[in-house]
Amino acid sequence: MCRILGLAVLAHAVLLSLARADDQVAATAAVEAPRAGSSSAELLAPPVLDALIAAELGVSLEQPGFVTDAEFLRRLTLDLIGRQPTPAELDEFLNEPSDVRRGLVIDRLLASPEFGGNWANYWSDTIAYRVPPPELTFLNYAPLEDWLAGQLNGNTPWDQIVRDLLTGTGKVADQPQATFVAYHQGNPTKLAAETARVFLSVQIQCAECHDHPFDDWKREQFHQLAAFFARSAVKMPWNEGAETVVSDKGKGEYFMPDAVDPTKKGKEMQPVFFTGAVVEKGGLPDLDRRRQLAEFITRPDNPWLAKSYVNRIWARLMGRGFYEPVDDMGLVQAPVLTNVHDQLTAHFVATGCDVKDLFRLVASTDAYRRGLPGNGSQSGKPLAAARVMKLRGDEVFDSLATAIELPDIQPPKAEPTPEIRFPIPPKSTRELVAETFGYDPSLRPQDVMRNMNQAMLLMNNEQLQAQVNADPSSGTVLARLLASEPDDGQAFRKLFEIMLARKPTDREVGLALEHVTSVADRGEAFEDLLWALINSTEFTTKR
């Protein structure tokens, strides 16, 4: 069915037609430390946010123009719920009054259960990609993802979610919020580094052994942060990460390793947060120490938490953060639109860290629905418009499941043998696609690489190829479409909307019909077209 050599010319022609503007946008601005947040508590409206962007860029944002409504819907649906829209959803959107349709669909998607699931995957990946796998245990992030989805769908404030993740205790299967501490094995130095990086966008790990060479973090500050986790105890089971238990050691303090000989104990450290907030050591148990840390981190006057979150969400929606990479708001970075960042952070704090409100605000701006920068006057202006981004692995799977009903098949578990006591759990279809296309969400977009495994999966995966089957007995989306639509032009238009959530251009229709005419078998011709659309760059990117 693949007929790779025969399809190469067709795929090239279709992909050439689908090509979009380049996604590389220069970003230059003066260096600014992320310490001083805005004191303004005034809530922003979308036009005000657009005006702030235009003022800071110093240009008119009339060009490039807005994307079409269909393109807006695909961009928004991918951003909020992690998949492309269906043709029925596109029709529903286009049939609503033009002056209210965007606001209605933003609210509808934010209310969807898929919103929490999509962003739970984002945060699970953010944590998991830097966690080294332990021996004899396969980490299971499903409980955390389910818990996060519930919190996000319920619009739990972000500061509360962070507080719960830092203070989680008990068994991961029963208390998923304990995952963060559990899967870092209660290691104070790992937890200090990742707490700062994930939730505060502070790269303090370089200060573990010496004062930071490029930033103003001191070695003592790193180990003062680690001291908050001095009494965290983690017991990891064999073969099932969700059975990991977080508990209290009951005693003990944290010692900064000796500067000359790291194998020896150095100075006993008192828990102190970056702002100078101190916790007395004494007999304070583990959970109370972590609660104190969570309180310091989530206080409204902490200059890092809200600013870090706003930067991450802006980066995901717009294709470029105010700071890049998004987990480093250090002095050596060159941020852009610093006033916009400050004002948006102040808005987020004023709303009580309202997650859905922030998404609604950004998605309602003209900047969000502006067309991709081209070679015109705006091409060198950072954040004048959203930029192309590669879909995360779970978004690729969910889009395939939405478009061609790709099933999520879970192979049976292998039984232990004397030779292999802990067999690797087999990957489901979702896990396979997510792993192949997955990447660390903290990376800069330009650092997310394409690879041969991704191309080979889309071209040759057995389960995926079974859905690229026009035989009437297969019951596939393609087979049903061809049976219900005898007109080749209309059939291709519908197939195109199924795959890319927009109407094809006349040129794209012409190329498709030329191919159908050149192939004797209609079913085979449309299998070729579907295969080419699946393998198009547009399908696996957000534009």
Attribute tags:
543 residues; 3-stranded antiparallel β-sheet; two-stranded antiparallel sheet; 23 helices; disordered N terminus
Task: Write a structural description.
The chain has 543 residues and is mainly alpha-helical. Helices cover 47% and strands 4% of the residues. The protein is built from 23 helices and seven strands. It has helices spanning 4-18, 46-57, 69-81, 87-94, 101-110, 113-128, 142-153, 158-167, 179-183, 188-200, 219-226, 286-298, 305-318, 338-350, 355-363, 393-404, 429-437, 452-460, 462-467, 477-484, 488-500, 506-518, 522-534; strands at residues 170-171, 232-235, 245-248, 254-257, 265-269, 389-390, 541-542. The protein has a three-stranded antiparallel β-sheet, with no helix packed on it. A two-stranded antiparallel sheet has the order 4-5. A hairpin with a 7-residue loop joins β4 and β5. α16 crosses α17. It is globular, with a radius of gyration of 25 Å. Residues 1-40 and 374-379 have low confidence and may be disordered.
